[in-house]
Design goal:
The chain is of the alpha/beta class and 178 residues long. Helices cover 44% and strands 20% of the residues. It has one domain: Flavodoxin domain (Rossmann fold, 3-Layer(aba) Sandwich), CATH 3.40.50.360.
Length: 178
């Protein structure tokens, strides 16, 4: 049976993007969900010399296989200075070295959140272009602004309009993988 893979582009142990992924996954019924907390996946900064000396870690190869085997991906990216985090860019660099087609033809629900009023929209746009470059099929995007004002782990997305938009985007993603 295939599964939906969910993870955040952040390796923070308190990642709000991972919280958004977990919440989104909790809304899915009748499909297996695999969530990966990237705080448990430390990867060295990509360097060609390091790759030549050490090759690819087992956890990186396994992560790439998890992506390939998934029926769809739920991903939420964080933002540092209007860009995706160095961790996320590094992760993409490593994955593309293991297999340039690591995400080709994968259906992706791409999300982003931040504490600010723009909801990491700059990172969302950049990440979408980056994933499209490697062949991902972005089925929907969603940005959640002002995370601490608009989200509660037990209640979910508090703003009715944002909750409705999130639900529509999640449904579009689920429809695309059926």
């Amino acid at each position: 049976m295939s599964y939906i893979l969910g993870f955040a582009g952040s390796n923070s142990s308190t990642s709000i993007n991972y919280k958004l992924v977990r919440y989104t996954a909790s809304l899915i019924n009748q499909q297996e969900i695999r969530l990966l907390d990237m705080a448990n996946y430390p990867f060295p900064m990509y360097c060609e010399d390091y790759e030549k000396e050490n090759g690819f870690s087992n956890s990186l190869v396994e992560f790439k296989e998890d992506i390939k085997k998934a029926s769809g991906i739920i991903l939420s990216v964080n933002e540092h200075n209007s860009n995706p985090s160095a961790y996320f860019k590094n992760l993409i660099d490593w994955l593309s070295r293991v297999d340039r087609d690591f995400i080709r033809e994968q259906k992706v629900l791409l999300m982003a959140t931040s504490g600010g009023k723009r909801g990491a929209q700059s990172s969302l746009v950049i990440s979408e272009k980056l994933l499209l470059r490697f062949g991902a099929e972005i089925t929907a995007t969603f940005s959640l602004p002002r995370f601490s004002d608009n989200f509660d782990m037990e209640k979910g997305i508090l703003d009715a309009q944002l909750a409705s938009e999130h639900s529509e985007k999640l449904q579009a993603f689920l429809d695309s993988i059926r």
